[in-house]
């Protein structure tokens, strides 16, 4: 495999990937064109992500988190898949993509029609009890939270749009949090937070998906966390070609066959048009 001396472009990616069955790893960059912010993109402000320890260890923090989540999760639910999601679903339909590992929790790959999807970091539409493991639909919890906090979501939605953190905290300090309906335990969105590990069976399934592919395509991830980077290392150790499509450099670039510095919506669409059947 020759590595081009100039900045790789779409034809270079097609040359590497043509005739191969692809495992795909996606990150937040794939969903930015659906209106879901990418906090690690080159133009995004730095941000301190919430940790699992903060969530479980601090009641005031948790109340504030749920108050914001009660407003914010609706935005994710209203998001629609974009051209990048649809291109990956088309490639799976044609048998070129064998499956997706996504770091996104927005379920937009599923909405676009992708079938073999591993939601590595969980999914926004469920909550789980940390004591008994009972899973509750996020829509069901929303109606319970609405009953406990009448009018809150409508009232705070206006505040959320204005970037005034103090105003939000002011409104959230009286928010009433809901507990597990089965055991009274602490509920948490079914999302893997910083400080948590991805469940082992899910990681193993993701490694198996990489093993099944002839090459790995990474889309819209800067691979800043080990959680995603390990699959690039795994593919590199097996000498599989790796193509990364991402705006800005990534931690996987040194392991990759090539990195196309471009947006995922247009690049994945073009790949779906140009890649031949396998
Ligand atoms: Zn429970």
TrEMBL record:
Zn(2+) binds at residues 129, 132, 180, 183. The lineage of its organism: Bacteria, Bacillati, Actinomycetota, Actinomycetes, Micrococcales. This is NAD-dependent protein deacetylase. NAD(+) binds at residues 27-47, 103-106, 220-222, 246-248, 264. Its main location: cytoplasm. It is an enzyme of class 2 (transferase). PROSITE patterns: SIRTUIN. Belongs to the sirtuin family. Class II subfamily. It comes from Cellulomonas alba. Residues 1-278 form the Deacetylase sirtuin-type domain. HAMAP family: Sirtuin_ClassII. The keyword Zinc applies. NAD-dependent protein deacetylase which modulates the activities of several enzymes which are inactive in their acetylated form. The gene is cobB.
């Amino acid at each position: 495999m020759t590595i081009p001396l100039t900045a790789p472009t779409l034809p270079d990616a097609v040359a590497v990937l043509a005739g191969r069955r692809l495992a795909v790893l996606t990150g937040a960059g794939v969903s930015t064109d659906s209106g879901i912010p990418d906090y690690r993109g080159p133009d995004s402000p730095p941000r301190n992500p919430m940790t699992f320890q903060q969530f479980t260890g601090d009641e005031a923090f948790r109340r504030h988190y749920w108050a914001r989540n009660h407003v914010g999760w609706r935005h994710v639910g209203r998001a629609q898949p974009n051209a990048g999601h649809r291109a990956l679903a088309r490639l799976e339909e044609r048998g070129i993509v064998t499956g997706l590992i996504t770091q996104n929790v927005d379920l937009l790959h599923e909405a676009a029609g992708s079938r073999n999807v591993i939601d590595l970091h969980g999914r926004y539409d469920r909550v789980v009890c940390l004591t008994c493991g009972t899973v509750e639909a996020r829509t069901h919890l929303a109606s319970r939270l609405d009953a406990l906090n009448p009018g809150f979501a409508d009232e705070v939605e206006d505040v959320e749009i204005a970037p005034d953190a103090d105003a939000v905290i002011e409104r959230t300090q009286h928010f009433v949090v809901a507990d597990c309906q089965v055991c009274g335990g602490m509920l948490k969105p079914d999302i893997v937070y910083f400080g948590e590990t991805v469940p082992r069976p899910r990681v193993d399934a993701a490694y198996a998906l990489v093993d099944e592919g002839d090459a790995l395509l990474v889309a819209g991830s800067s691979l800043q966390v080990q959680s995603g980077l390990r699959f690039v290392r795994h593919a590199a150790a097996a000498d599989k070609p790796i193509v990364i499509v991402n705006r800005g450099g990534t931690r996987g670039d040194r392991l990759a066959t090539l990195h196309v510095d471009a947006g995922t919506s247009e690049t994945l669409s073009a790949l779906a048009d140009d890649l031949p059947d396998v």
